[in-house]
Amino acid sequence: MLNGVIFDFDGIIVDTEPLHYRAFQRLLEPEGLGYDWSVYVERYMGFDDREAFTEAYRAGGRTLEHAELEELIEEKGRVFQEIIAGGVVPYPGVVELIRALAGRVPLALCSGALPGDILPVLKQFDLTDAFPVIVTAADVAASKPDPASYQLALQRLQASHPTVTIDPDSCIAIEDTPAGIASANGAGIPVLAVTNSYPAERLSAARAVVASLATVTPDELDALVP
Questions:
Q1: Given 84, 114, 132, which residue is the final one in a domain?
Q2: Residue ranges making up the domain that contains 27
Q3: Residue 82's CB: how many other CB atoms inside 10 A?
Q4: Residue 111 in 3-state DSSP?
Q5: Structural contact between residues 2 and 157, judged by C-beta atoms closer than 8 angstroms
Q6: Which of 86, 155, 168, 187 has its CA 20 to 30 A from that of 30?
Q7: How far apart are alpha carbons 181 and 161 in whole angstroms?
């Protein structure tokens, strides 16, 4: 029986990856550390801001002090807010699926983004109350593919629904990246992968792969649970 659904954010609810890329480049290019979109997809997608800046400086042969890293993260967040203020568009079917599940199955959000990147978008989509549990990069020391974020999401889901037995086998994670799949699988959670960001062959570690959430129903998610 399906007792929990844990959604990724970027690449599942909304395609903010190009917006994150723009925000990163606005800060990195003046330092001579910019890179192409293809490099972002291959190397940086799935990183949280800490890892993305650290890797960009490392790739450029430069060190990054903790205080400077914190300043970069703060400034990148400000730039990102400017960008999303112009409005963002959800992936087809995802808002409808979330609303169909809300109240029927405990829901959580598990993302490598920061709260300031997530909450304004949920507000735009009128989903602020849909997720009683939200785990972000601010909550864990290591982001995906490390399983820590999904492990924490499970713990918080159980704490928020004490009358429901929420274990890894009774949940489904919805992901779009190999790192996200590895993170969920590392926590013992089966994954429904969506080919929003990567082709199906890169997502083969998931229990099932679909082209879009527009065709997925709550009953189909329930069927993925043993």
A1: 84
A2: 17-84
A3: 13
A4: coil
A5: no
A6: 86
A7: 24
The DSSP call for residue 226 is: -
**What is the token pair recorded at 187?**
């926590």
At residue 206, φ and ψ (nearest 5 deg) are -80, 160
pLDDT in tens, 147-205: 999 999 999 999 999 999 999 999 999 999 999 999 999 999 999 999 999 999 999 99
Of 84, 115, 132, the position where a domain reaches its end is 84
End-to-end CA distance of the chain: 8
User: What is the reported pTM?
Assistant: 0.83
Q: Which two tokens stand for residue 126?
A: 């009128």
Alpha-helical regions (H) of 139-177: 148-160
**What are the C-alpha distances in Å from 43 to residues 37, 59, 133?**
10, 11, 29
Alpha helices, H only, 161-224: 178-186, 218-223
